[in-house]
Amino acid sequence: MTSATTSTDATDGVLPSGWEIVIGLEVHVELNTNTKLFCGCPNSFGDEPNTNVCPICLGLPGSLPVLNARAVESAMRLGRALNCDVNSSVFSRKNYFYPDQPKDYQVSQYDLATNTDGHIDLPSGTRIRIERAHIEEDAGKLNHGGGDGRIHGADYSMADYNRAGVPLVEIVSHPDLRSAEDAKAYVSELRNIVTAVDVSDAKMEEGSMRVDANVSVRPVGSDELRTRCEVKNINSLRSLERAIEYEARRHVHLYDNGEKPRQETRHWDEEAGRSRSGRSKEDAEDYRYFPEPDLVPLVVTAEDITRLDASLPTMPSARRQVLADKAGATDDEVGLLVDRGQDAFAVSSIDAGADPKRVVVHLVNNLSEGVGQLTPETFAGLVTLETSGDLSSTQAKEVLAEMVAHGGEAVAIAAAKGFEAMDGGELESILDGIIAEHPDEWERFATGDEGDRKKMQGMFTGQIMKATKGQADGAAVARLLAEKAGS
Amino acid sequence: MTDTALAIAQAVRSGQRSASDVIDEALSAIGSREDELHAYNLVLADEARAAAANVDAQVAAGEDPGPLAGVPIALKDNMCTRGIATTCSSKILEGWLPPYNATVVDRLAAAGAIAVGKTNLDEFAMGSSTENSAFGPTKNPHDITKVPGGSSGGSAATVGAGAVPLSLGSDTGGSIRQPASLCGVVGVKPTYGLVSRYGLIAFASSLDQIGPFATTVADAAVALEVIGGHDPADSTSIPSPIADLQSALGKGVEGLRIGIISELSGDASLGSVEGIAPDVSARAAAAAQALEAAGATVEHTSIPSAVHGLPAYYLIAPAEASSNLARYDGVRYGMRVDGANALAMNAATRTAGFGEEVKRRIMLGTYALTSGYYDAYYGQAQRVRTLMINEFNDRYQKFDLLLSPTSPTTAFDIDAKTADPMTMYVNDVCTIPSNLTGQPAMSVPFGVGDDGLPIGVQILAPMLGESTMFQAAAVLEEAAR
Ligand SMILES: [Zn+2]
């Protein structure tokens, strides 16, 4: 699938025909190191304000940064996982004033970033190029008192520097994304990769993964890059989709009216469903980047790269391939299980002898909340009972719920529930055959009034008794009929 | 006149003299001239007496307090001292008490030295006369109508006055060596990275280096041994222990090759810059003769890039300063002048809190880093810096040491140069190259000028060439006696 076809398809209904969206994403990922980027303070979320601070992360006069080697290692691992070149790099100061920034400059990377020129392959096959993934420090947080809780109109603000100096990697994509769907898929895939290499918990709700979207539009078939707006304050994948589509429609509307968007930063308001104008390019700050003289250049050797590559786990795209080969499932199913991190469980269950299709069906539909006490072996046991006809699909589902909650073997739980092993499965397949022969009668039983229902129950019970030569248990038949009609 | 640090330490360690007695004497010597000199922003009388009592208790208990036992030392007021005001001679740090000690402060205390006060400086170390202090100028102890030099003027003046044997300064473009020269004391700017900058309030991070003032070369050596060596808290700290400098002192200069920098010689026929006073260049020439007499080979050598140091320095240092000083915004500590919003508070605070020279350099540095001008100014200055490093390294293939005057003139009149920043900046022409190259240099007193005021001679050495530098310094010290 090429990106051009994705774009036209996905833009349907979002923009008038003839327009396409051009998106580049800047994603900040907070690294899950024990300590901050330049000091020994805990890197921890949700503590009392200003408890995880020291002279260094408060930027007190005379303090100096010392680079956290673990943070660098994590950033480089992520770089390799994103197919980047990992380079020797230099930290730079990005100078600006904001009260949450203790030094009034952010230590970041400018012209010599640690990771450059990578890519992510989306599950659809589209390749999104990554320009760079550089290391930088986070700022603190302001809490605005009085007014309406925003900085304008606040009576006072309180600064919490617990987050100041937390290590971040900022991953900057090329403007290769053509739809909100693509953007969501990119962020999901990035999150999968980040968690696979275990460098961040990547939670958008907690701010450990933050997404800014650069959005513009252009006529389909054009390869120009028109004026873009950077949309900030996006807190979920749903926000991301809405914000991108809102912004794109806004641009098309402007062009339709003979106007043009101006390059600016905009803040997404999830409640209002719109973005608000922030800083324009004209009054954008000049960050006056220059090499950070308090740190020495970060030197990367060929041995470092070899060591990093050897330490990488299997990436999500390769995991999707493994699962697809094993299970023969659809792209959507495979993608979902890898997103949920259930692919390894699926593969182990299949390896333990379970039917691949049933494994995927159960995981997709019945195990979305997690596998609980289930192991690949016990799960395989259940699936085998089901596929061999010993349990009906309905019974299997009930046994499975019990296994997830409390563990145990499928055979024992089925027995305890009175699912007469042979009878249950056999009965159901017999009934399925009878239903196939009498679809109209079944329709009357399942959806008809009281009278119809009674009549048809008698008819189906008679047919089953006939087919089983009177061996079937009447109560079991009644239960099976009720279950089948209700499901 | 005070005893040397080595003599005091020896007397205190052997129990011949109590540290308390030493400190009382130093405090009284400081007090006797403080009104006229204003060398100190803060005298730490109580703290010093308490520390002296500790040293005495250690000696009484049979413990060795260390190589600087009981030695009074003054600290430039840009080095952080826990719970003790550290001002950089700026109103903007009003009321701020650092919660930690600079590494050098801890190392001095661990060696038994006793901090007696925080000395005056040009605000944030920006100046060459200590006239840019928010708390008023320091005077030259040899003539109180003259400046002591700067920016470490208070530290130079108190040692020059004989009140204490040792002090620490910081040197970004000559701020130790030039006041050492003007006050008639030894002053050392070590190799960049030899002494930890942790706790030194930054002026220009890639140039700043802490070093000692002393009345003798040997005292300077022991002080540098105490404060130098690797510190993991400073990423630019050189990861090796400091050399044994005291043992280098008696080695002489027999066979050493020493180059006199033509461009700083004061001799126009050799291509020297203008402004080096004849009495100053005469003393530098006399120093060269003394070294030759002691067995060194001495010749002139041209280093054309040396004179380009001044403009490069006045772009790089302000650029870094504009960023380093951004944090004084009224939000977290020090002075705050309220405004309608955060940005207005920031502007009001900085307008009220910084002096003229600091504002001038912040503006200069901000401009030098502005996109569109970066390459022409900051970028070009960094290229000059690289050129200078290459040229000096090349000369050090041929010479063990280089020689020049330290300051173009003897101490000048108070207020003589404050009206014109450019004439003030030219004071640093001889000292700036070593900051840009990161190489060590020191000023050694070598006689007096036509006005009877002290003149220092500068010895320059390659990276980590302190031992050889101190060998030559000891020879000059002996020759000047
Ligand atoms: Zn910290």
Which helices and strands appear, and what pairs or packs with what?
The complex is a heterodimer of chains A (487) and B (481).
Chain A: H1 3-11, E1 19-30, H2 69-81, E2 85-86, E3 91-95, E4 105-109, E5 115-121, E6 127-137, E7 141-145, E8 156-160, E9 167-173, H3 180-196, E10 209-219, E11 229-234, H4 237-256, E12 264-269, E13 274-280, E14 290-291, H5 302-311, H6 316-327, H7 331-340, H8 343-351, H9 356-366, H10 376-387, H11 393-406, H12 410-416, H13 421-437, H14 439-447, H15 450-467, H16 474-486
Parallel strand pairs in A: 11-12
Antiparallel strand pairs in A: 1-9, 1-10, 2-5, 3-4, 3-14, 5-6, 6-9, 7-8, 10-11, 12-13
Chain B: H1 5-13, H2 19-37, E1 40-43, H3 45-60, E2 72-76, H4 103-110, E3 114-119, H5 153-160, E4 166-171, H6 177-183, E5 186-189, E6 209-214, H7 217-227, E7 257-261, H8 278-293, E8 297-301, H9 309-324, H10 342-353, H11 356-369, H12 375-398, E9 401-405, H13 421-425, H14 432-437, E10 441-448, E11 454-460, H15 466-480
Parallel strand pairs in B: 2-3, 2-4, 7-8, 7-9
Antiparallel strand pairs in B: 1-3, 4-6, 5-6, 5-10, 9-11, 10-11
Helix pairs in contact in B: 2-3, 5-6, 9-11, 9-12
Summarize, please:
With 487 residues, chain A is α+β, with helices and mostly antiparallel strands.
First and last CA, distance of chain A: 38 Å
Mean pLDDT of chain B: 96
* Total strands of chain A: 14
Count of alpha/pi helices of chain A: 16
Number of distinct beta strands of chain B:
11
Molecular structure report:
The complex is a heterodimer of chains A (487) and B (481). With 487 residues, chain A is of the alpha+beta class. Chain A has three domains: 9-309, no CATH class; 316-416, no CATH class; 424-485. Chain A is built from 16 helices and 14 strands. Chain B has 481 residues and is an alpha/beta fold. Chain B has a domain at 5-248: Amidase signature (AS) enzymes (Alpha-Beta Complex), CATH 3.90.1300. Chain B is built from 15 helices and eleven strands. Chain B has helices at residues 5-13, 19-37, 45-60, 103-110, 153-160, 177-183, 217-227, 278-293, 309-324, 342-353, 356-369, 375-398, 421-425, 432-437, 466-480, and strands at 40-43, 72-76, 114-119, 166-171, 186-189, 209-214, 257-261, 297-301, 401-405, 441-448, 454-460. Chain B has an eleven-stranded mixed sheet with strand order 1-3-2-4-6-5-10-11-9-7-8, with helices on both faces. The A-B interface holds A 55, 58-67, 93, 95, 97-99, 102-105, 157, 159, 286, 288-290, 293-296 and B 78-80, 86, 88, 93, 96, 98-100, 102, 197-202, 204-206, 232-236, 319-320, 322-323, 326-327, 329, 331-333, 342-343, 346, 366, 369-371, 374, 378. The complex binds zinc ion (ZN).
